[in-house]
Amino acid sequence: MTIRGIQPTSLVDFPGEVCTTLFLSGCNFRCPWCHNADLVLRPSTLPEISVEEIFGFLNRRRSWVQAVCITGGEPSLAPGLEEFIRSLKSSGFKVKLDTNGTQPGVIARLLAGDLLDYVAMDVKAPLAKYDLLTGTRVDLEAIKESIALLKNSQIACELRTTAVPGLLLEEDFSAIGQMLAGARYYVLQQFRPAGNLLNPGLRELIPYPEITLRNIVTKLQPFFAKVEIRS
């Protein structure tokens, strides 16, 4: 498993926990608004951090950090992920997984093994627009299976969508709401036109106004137990 980045302390990546965030390289999507372009397109240009280094770092900080968020890239593609998470759990750390939902078998095994404390799945678009927004041919049945797994899971989880103007229209969110209806928690994420975007041209894109996001959330509330905006 290749770890290409670490954020030593995060107060936002794992709700309710102070965590260390680990970035795994490689992804099967090419979402133009992705902020981790090097992890997706040029992972070999980033320094590799060994698992031994990670555990040494975590153990030195465990008096105030007891949780780890594993993100990417797409971590469910990484060989050795299950063994790594098992080691984290055996060491007493809570684990959150960020995923695009393309590997439901991996998610199912991790859930069945009681290896996850929180899962966040990025729902990119209504199913009809998935290929367009991810820049690839998507197995939509896999996406639906992952959504079902999380909706039926007993652990904490969130389904979330980044509101990118021009790529996602307001009416698209109604279709997403219908697709995810019955989920406990949905997060509408504000698009941030900054950082190392996969498509640098999107840095000129003006995000949706806050009032537009609030209107979308109002329309989505009937579908979920809880809906919120994350800026």
Describe it.
The chain has one domain: Aldolase class I (TIM Barrel). The model has no long low-confidence stretch (mean pLDDT 96). The protein is globular. The protein is an alpha/beta fold. The two termini are 31 Å apart. The protein has an eight-stranded mixed β-sheet with strand order 1-2-3-4-5-6-7-8, with helices on one face. It contains eight helices and eight strands; from the N terminus they run E-E-H-H-E-H-E-H-E-H-H-E-H-E-H-E. Helix 4 (104-112) packs parallel to helix 6 and helix 7 (170-180) packs parallel to helix 8. Strand 6 (156-163), helix 7 and strand 7 (185-190) form a beta-alpha-beta unit.
What key phrases describe this protein's structure?
231 residues, 8 helices, single chain, TIM Barrel, globular, alpha/beta, 8 strands
The number of distinct β-strands equals 8
The radius of gyration is 17 Å
- List segments where confidence is low: pLDDT < 50 over at least 5 consecutive residues: none
CATH class: Alpha Beta
Provide the structure class.
alpha/beta
| Oligomer state of the chains in this structure | single chain
- Major β-sheet profile: 8 strands, mixed
Helix content: 25-40%
Furnish the topology, listing elements before pairings.
Layout: E1 3-10, E2 19-24, H1 37-41, H2 51-61, E3 67-71, H3 81-90, E4 94-99, H4 104-112, E5 118-122, H5 130-134, H6 140-152, E6 156-163, H7 170-180, E7 185-190, H8 210-220, E8 226-230
Parallel strand pairs: 2-3, 3-4, 4-5, 5-6, 6-7, 7-8
Antiparallel strand pairs: 1-2
